[in-house]
Design a protein that fits this description.
The protein contains three helices and five strands; from the N terminus they run ββββαααβ. It is an alpha+beta fold. The protein has a five-stranded mixed β-barrel with strand order 1-2-3-5-4.
């Protein structure tokens, strides 16, 4: 995927991307599937400056790991909360066991998202950040695989 650099700040750039239908299959911009334009903050590996067109890439398996973090960890928190609520807390509270399990499962999801948010600084600075890898021409097709 490619875009134009709108801001260069040290070793990071802000890249404005206009998603085209031809790029719909690469799934690198999944967060922007409904929007046509988006701005992405990327690590500047090609010494890009404002106005340059750059190609963006994700590091190996970064998308898969990010999906596991954002969906897998909260799922485990939900399951742990449901089990805790059903087997440990249901007999102690005056409300039905199913409601106790559901509410403790929701609390587990919330706690997981709070933990993920607290670790965000670690993940944003690492391998989950897109990389501006090379300068490209405006009419060059950077989405071709």
């Amino acid at each position: 995927m490619k875009g134009v650099v709108t801001d260069a700040n040290g070793s990071f750039v802000t890249v404005h991307i206009i998603r085209k239908e031809a790029c719909g299959e690469c799934r690198a911009c999944l967060s922007g599937m409904t929007e046509k334009d988006m701005d992405i903050h990327a690590k500047n590996l090609c010494a890009a400056e404002v106005g340059d067109w750059v190609e963006l890439e994700l590091q190996d398996n970064a998308f898969f790991h990010a999906v596991l973090i954002m969906y897998g960890i909260p799922l485990l928190g939900f399951l742990a909360g449901v089990l805790l609520g059903h087997f440990a807390l249901a007999s102690l509270l005056p409300i039905p066991g199913e409601l106790t399990a559901f509410f403790t499962g929701c609390i587990g999801v919330g706690l997981c998202y709070l933990w993920i948010h607290s670790q965000n600084h670690r993940w944003e600075s690492g391998k989950y950040r897109p990389l501006a890898t090379r300068l490209v021409a405006e009419d060059e097709d950077a989405c071709a695989i």
